[in-house]
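Q: How do we represent a protein-ligand complex in a form that can be generated token by token?
A: Start from the inputs.
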Amino acid sequence: MELLETIKSRRSIRAYKPDQVPREILTELLEVARWAPSGSNTQPWEFIVLAGETLGELNRAMIERLHSGKMKPEPDEDMPFSFPTGLYKERSAKFYKKVLAVIKMQEWYEKSMSFFDAPAAIIIVTDKSAPQPWWLFDIGLISQTIALTAQNYGLGTCMVGHPAAYPKEVRTVLNIPESKRIVVGIAIGYPDWDHPLNSLRTEREPVEKLVTWRGMAEEEEKK
Ligand SMILES: Cc1cc2nc3c(=O)[nH]c(=O)nc-3n(C[C@H](O)[C@H](O)[C@H](O)COP(=O)(O)O)c2cc1C
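Then emit the structure tokens for the protein with flavin mononucleotide bound:
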């Protein structure tokens, strides 16, 4: 797939075929994705790749958390959570309106908490000694690189923040030490294109609303 087309056609995939993703494919994918840049080339990422019974166990623990009603995020101290306000709240509301047109909130939560029943998931963790503030930035870079690379293999992905919101469950099931931060999860598998959730297409702000030009030839001419 052409790079520009790959970037523009990527979308979060929230329904998957049951087909397993071969370990060799996931290895190849991570071998490519690890070429993402990072501050001073620190590469502050480690991947926990989950499938089968282990993924099932984590999903069950997360669903149990959801059903317990204790949904207030309990992130690690250096990953505090806040909710979108102002302009960001508006954009987020637009997104949820689209989600709720296809699925009920409770069902969406259950799916989000259980990696959308994807056959595999990647949890990205970083050592707590990784330099501030760039580790979070670097993990964003590798996450998007994974998402784009996955498309090359016909795979779809969806990033999920819940593992960072409820690290206790993830730590317990996967036996992750306190010295590691649980940053993000990525559901991964072959997209079920017939599922209505995968027809959800989000919007983007037009470039004119995002950019201020300074010192470009056209602007200079207006002076
Ligand atoms: C850090 C992060 C966490 C996310 N968590 C969730 C999630 O829990 N559930 C979900 O359905 N989508 C989640 N998403 C996907 C976003 O909703 C999605 O990227 C955004 O709406 C843009 O849509 P697109 O990816 O289809 O272009 C997350 C994305 C990011 C980057």
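The chain is about 45% helix and 15% strand. The longest helix spans residues 134-152.
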